[in-house]
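#data-curation
PF: Archiving a pair of folding outputs for the training set. Convention for this channel: one message per protein, sequence first, structure tokens after, nothing in between. First:
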Amino acid sequence: MSSLIPNAGPPVQPVPSYFVVMIDYGRRGLEAIVDPEINERGIVARLSCGEYTNVAFVHHVHDGLCEDVSDAIFARAGVGQEAA
């Protein structure tokens, strides 16, 4: 008698989840900062301390969707969109 593991279907791929922080350099253009290691708390910390400035928007990409979370992130960081 052999011990077989029942087929549970195809392997499940992890769903990526990351934030996109868009920096606006005016006439010089835009830069997207995408770092899968940075979570929402990290972005709030960088906004609060001034490391991220001139932020055009923050998007959260998850489950195949792209969600604009700019207002919530700016509020948590205690900065207005004009200051970010």
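PF: Second:
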Amino acid sequence: MRLIYAVFILLLVLMTSAQCQQTAEDWFNKGDLLLNSGKYNESIEAYNKAIELNQSYALAWSHIGSALYNLSLYNESFECYNKAIDLDSKLAPPWSGKGAVFDHQGKYDDAIKACNKAIELDPKYAMPWNNKGVALHGQGKYDDAIKAYDEAIRLDPKCVMAWNNKGSVLGKQGKYAEAIKASDEAIRLDPEYAMAWINKGAALSMQGNYANAIKAYDEAIRLDPKLAAAWISKGGALYNQGKYDEAIDACDEAIKLNSSNPSCWDIKGMALMERGKYDEVVKAYDQAIKLNSSKPSYWNIKGNALYYLSKYDESAKAYDQAIKLNSSEPVYWNNKGNALDGLARYDEAIQSYNKASGINQTYSVSMIGKGNSHYNAGEYIAAIRYYDEAIKQDPKDENAWYNKADALRMLHRNSEAEAAYTKARELGYSGAMTLMEMTTK
């Protein structure tokens, strides 16, 4: 009995020892399980164990690159992909991974070259086609991007990212119904893929279906409460619904998560503008401009807020920045004219209005602006001439009728003024009063 017992103990020890001796491939497979579960740091530890056992394990280096990419450590990711290529230049995944890093950096030509190399090495590998599509998308080559995504889908019909990215491009092309179908397929394949819900929401928003868009954004937020893009998109949809306070709240959530995205400050600023909180609008757009000073609309809306605060000189400077970035937009010239008018620099204001009407000859607002500057300069006949031009371009412009009435009143042409006030009131100008009302207030 003692001999049998001793043999049993010996076998148990040998079995336990064998179980503890995991191979490089065992650690690699464990790393893949962790990577696919979103446990990126733990996956890196497992891959490193694999590399300790096999220092020439190129695919392990490539998968560390993927984990680092998902942790937004793009430079470190790139280094790992290069290490994998140094070990095995004929391995497709690290070339595809390099393409993804180049995509993130906006180096689209380099991304396409890297992806083409991966495709050359493994023509049946779907991911480089997806990453190539992202680069083509970034270059604005939407048709070519869709072809790349379709090839990825043909090779791997369950490639969730390719379906999601295809939906995004279709949305850019204005094909919103098709975009929703593509997003729905991504969601069917992976109901917990938050980005697909965001893209679906974006397409629904572009259709004007804001209620269902918000439901899609809410689902994205439920899946990933820390996804700033979902909060920003929700804020935009709420803004379009006229729910300005809720839009501000959504943008504030986005700002808590990622204050470096100018879009959250932009949407918040627009919602604050609707609430008449002009000082806060200026602060919001100062943040947006700090992050992206090359977007003219940011300068324009900041200028509008400063104008409403009667800070006409600062307002004019903001409009100048917008014009510097896009001198072919008549709105910016018109708004600069308004600021100059506020500074009583009427000749300069008229020049600015002339710029606006020169760009768009049917832009009636600039005609009203010119009329206002002549009116403020005491040149009532000239003012009426421009108000008449504005009315000719848009007979239903109540502001032109009302301002014309004011100019006629200043010339004591009271019966004509009364008729113009009546017309303005009929068109919905709430401030339009009769001459009798004016003289009794």
